[in-house]
Automatic annotation (TrEMBL):
<dbReference type="GO" id="GO:0019262">
    <property type="term" value="P:N-acetylneuraminate catabolic process"/>
</dbReference>
<dbReference type="GO" id="GO:0005829">
    <property type="term" value="C:cytosol"/>
</dbReference>
<feature type="binding site">
    <location>
        <position position="209"/>
    </location>
    <ligand>
        <name>pyruvate</name>
    </ligand>
</feature>
<dbReference type="Pfam" id="PF00701">
    <property type="entry name" value="DHDPS"/>
</dbReference>
<dbReference type="InterPro" id="IPR002220">
    <property type="entry name" value="DapA-like"/>
</dbReference>
<feature type="active site" description="Schiff-base intermediate with substrate">
    <location>
        <position position="167"/>
    </location>
</feature>
<protein>
    <submittedName>
        <fullName>N-acetylneuraminate lyase</fullName>
    </submittedName>
</protein>
<comment type="similarity">
    <text>Belongs to the DapA family.</text>
</comment>
<keyword id="KW-0456">Lyase</keyword>
<dbReference type="GO" id="GO:0008747">
    <property type="term" value="F:N-acetylneuraminate lyase activity"/>
</dbReference>
<feature type="active site" description="Proton donor/acceptor">
    <location>
        <position position="139"/>
    </location>
</feature>
<dbReference type="InterPro" id="IPR013785">
    <property type="entry name" value="Aldolase_TIM"/>
</dbReference>
Amino acid sequence: MRDITKYQGIIPAFYACYAEDGCISEKRTQIWAQYLLEKGVKGVYVGGSSGECIYQSVEERKRLLEALMEVAKGKMTVIAHVACNNTKDSCELAAHAQKCGVDAIASIPPIYFHLPEHSVAQYWNDISAAAPDTDFIIYNIPQLAGTALTMSLFHEMLKNPRVAGVKNSSMPIQDIQMFKMDGGKDFAVFNGPDEQLVGGLAIGADGAIGGTYGVMPELYLKIYELCKNGEYEKARPIQYAADEIIYEICSCRGNMYAVIKEIIRRREGIDLGDVRKPLASVDRKLDEAKIESSLQKIREAVAKFS
Ligand SMILES: CC(=O)N[C@@H]([C@@H](O)[C@H](O)[C@H](O)CO)[C@@H](O)CC(=O)C(=O)O
């Protein structure tokens, strides 16, 4: 039996940390990892959507993971997303992640070409084979990847004993139940949409990985604690508060991650740099009121609920 306790909890999707010149910043990566560690999160999900992985080179992603591991190794669960949209580079990152000592690697399906399921399975199994002593987590995010984790593809992947879980970012909460039912007792399913954390946990998610956890970790940690105690009624208003903030952040002209980084800068005095183009930076005029309003809402919600 696999021990999945390391996956049970709140796992922020780690933001890409850049220096002023837009290059990867190891120093800021470590400051951010230390901050999350001190907040008490279960782990971090590195190099995913929030990590802006598709805008980074293989070398940059390696450097970022190495810097993070200096802080996180042995102290929190590290899941490294290694997909690169071609098998060779993904395998290189998978092998590197295993060498760094991560708890698991994860991968989206190949994007752009809509490949048949046998090709997607081959891609994932090749990546997994490059990290033979490491758990493999399937990242199901059909609205961005363009390919969904169907049950037939899921069953094919379950033949690989290293497949330990699904990070489920599809919108139907029912998908979590389907993967839980067929994945078995020692199989971890992570809730993906932050707006549905309470629902995802209620239907059986073991843990949760989210792009907005970093900007208001206290709220999600509280939701997780309450839900695990069966106190869903108490968790619901916190979810509503978080959702209102997410909607506001997402309605800015700047990209969600740019806005989040700006809020973190103001709330915690931690500078994670900007986002990479083509993601839009914060619009200093148009976004200002919403940024201040979201910041205020976060402060109030944290004071009220945590
Ligand atoms: C479609 C999407 O980006 N989903 C996000 C959510 O956390 C999302 O940002 C959040 O629910 C706000 O909409 C995550 O599932 C992505 C994620 O965790 C990651 O890899 O960074």
